[in-house]
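DM from R.C. (forwarded with permission)

"hey, sorry to bug you on a friday — could you get me a structure for this? deadline for the figure draft is monday and I only need the backbone to look sensible"
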Amino acid sequence: MPTVTLKTNHFNLDVGGFAGFFGGEEAVSAMETVHLYRARRWTGWFNSPGSYSVGKHYGRLANSRFWNGMFPGPNTEPTVYIGLDGKCGPMYFASQSGTFLKQTGHLAYLLMQRCKDQRAVVVEGRKTRANKVTILEMRDIKFDAAAETSLTIHARDGFHKHVALLPIATSIATCIFCAWGDDWYCFSLILLGILINGISCFVIGSASIILQSVAPSKNAPPGDGMLMDGNHVIIVLGKEKNVLAVTQGKFQLDDEDAEINNEYAAIGFCSLLLVIQFLTQLLLIPQGKLFGQVMFLTSFAVSWVYNLFLSSMDKEYLQEELLVQALNLSEDRMKTYKLGTRTAAAVFACLALQPDCEHEEWENRGFKPEEILRQFIPNDTHVWAVWRDQVLEQMKRRQSTLQSFDLEACGGRIAAFNDADKNLLRDLLLDARSAYQQYLILQIRGRSLIGSISSSVKAEVW
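My reply, with the result:
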């Protein structure tokens, strides 16, 4: 019987053909988290796959004739390119300042998504199509002293830095094993991948995220208003400067290299190194021994798993966390209510935006409740006109008795209504009643909270 032997003297894995392409999408997606986690820029010291994809992707950020020739493509804003900007936000309607924005920006979009995912308090009443209303009480934003409209955001901490020890240790270990096996080609290529990926993470992640707002007028009225996105509405209450940070603010990258020459030359240089790494691995990996090639492939596989772990993270959620942190918001200042009909949601939102003054001062304050109701329901039939009048009448009374929501209170205005119109109006008034009752509950709770706080303060003083 012939003897079977496994000869590997001339066997070659030839992994260089896919060294730069394998795991490219995961590597690019993982690199996009470099600004979202604290110390993420320091954890890139491993031999990562996809160097060609990462180099081509980030090379387009470099803006000069040389870099445009090296990495052709549109020069998009860095924040848009890495996903920190570019989403279209909901419509914004201010209740007192008269501001109307048909479309807001990325920060308003993030805030809307955050509120949509929040657990809601269910309001009793008639149910057709549910609408959610979030009441958001803005805190005073403490902008940086050097710039009155910008705020540096500190990235959140995470356990990723502990997971990063695995690919780092694997790359270093395989590099040592290659030297021990006298395979200096694979040793050099793994070491090259460690250095270039580490430097690239450090340079690309060197910019810090800032929240850039716009300067309000010194005599601007309160910025109270509402963000409207389909069946979800956010009532934003606060000073104009704080509300502007949401409606017109955006994330920006504070990069010293970009400030000096507006070219992002350091990122272009790192992208060039990544492409050189790919070409070097493509040419020299076949020159290594089988053991060294296996070690090279092992470092690639472990690094790919780590990149897959980073790319699986919800980057939009991480941005929401950064925004909530920058705005100093807490759960007690973000309350979501689920109302059974759009009619009830319209009344509830209008009541939440009502200024704390008598109705004679509404016009001077710029508060037009009828316009708010029309933003929800623009219907202009006789039934809806009577309903709006009854809602406004009740708001002007500012009483806990809800007589205006009785059908009999409409008087002769409904004399010509048929039974169908009366039944419709009765349902609409019931919706308004349920919304008003929930608003009264909020007022009672608010007074109780203020009373308890003032009592505790007096006790401390005493």
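R.C.: lifesaver. The longest strand covers residues 131-137.
me: no worries. Residues 139 and 329 are 7 Å apart (CA to CA).
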